[in-house]
Lipid scramblase CLPTM1L
Amino acid sequence: MNEKVEFERQAIPSEVYPFIRLAPNSQYLPVLYIDQLGVIYRYLKPVNKSSSEMKLKINYSPISLGKLRIWSSVHHSLKSMKDLGFTDKDLDDIRGIFTDTNLFLLALTFGITVLHLLFDFLAFKNDINYWKHRDSMVGLSMRTVIWRCASTFIIFLYLMDEKTSLLVLIPAGIGVLIEVWKVTKAFKVNIKWEKGERPSIQFGQRTSKEKETEEFDSEAMRYISYVLYPLVIAVAVYSLLYQPQKSWYSWIVRSLVNGVYVFGFLFMLPQLFVNYKLKSVAHLPWRAFMYKAFNTFIDDVFAFIIVMPTAHRLACFRDDVVFVIYLYQRWLYPVDMKRVNEFGVSYEDQGEDKPHKD
């Protein structure tokens, strides 16, 4: 540390105290900090018995008091994360964020992380609130809901198989639970549990408008299947013949996730087709959509910072296109007073004393 700093003996900062060495005359020696954050496992070179000598390069540079305190706090935080169960690979990914980027980009990353967590929370909150009050599937693609659930689960299995960072894995796991719950709401699943009897599962009845939406949904899915299924099978066979696989389970998961990442956006098209047929987007949870759209653009930034599989990185950019199409439909089909809102009720049904401004 090249700064001249004076501390009272009883008021030395806890981050600096471990690095202070006292001389016999009670004066402390210059502070020397060994940057352990720069030791990243993926940069280490293996040493075998035939290696008689290795080159050792030592970089020396002055450090400010503020940077020393921040680096020391981060080092202790990584130790705490390891005690909580984070793997060495997860900690290595976090170290890479601090050591492979400059301070400006690091500060930008921190700000983006805070925004990402905020939008994640708001998206989850509004999505749950929307589906909690949703009693009708009018205008919503049932197959898109099922596909979102299945694809989220497949991606979660793939991320686990690739030993991806918990920073990516934990939100994916939470997303799986939410998608499963949304499927139960879409099918109007009701679990009846009476004393002395086994629990029974009941499905709700569908209205005529819901059946009309389902017909549009089925028509769109029929067109998509002509393209999707042959492509997924072809990619799976190519992967089996020309790419090394860890196991049959890994091949199945990778084949499914390749279908999700490369052709998964096709399963979002039924909802776009339903919107086109109904000439309305009033039934969609737009508040949750917008938070997810913001997070999608933030994911584009994270795709270059956090270590993740290449296919998962490309999927972040694919979602941008889908959200742009949704926004175009929002502009093309403006909400009027006769169309149903996101809870299946028209604005006219709410009474003249509650006007709505779009």
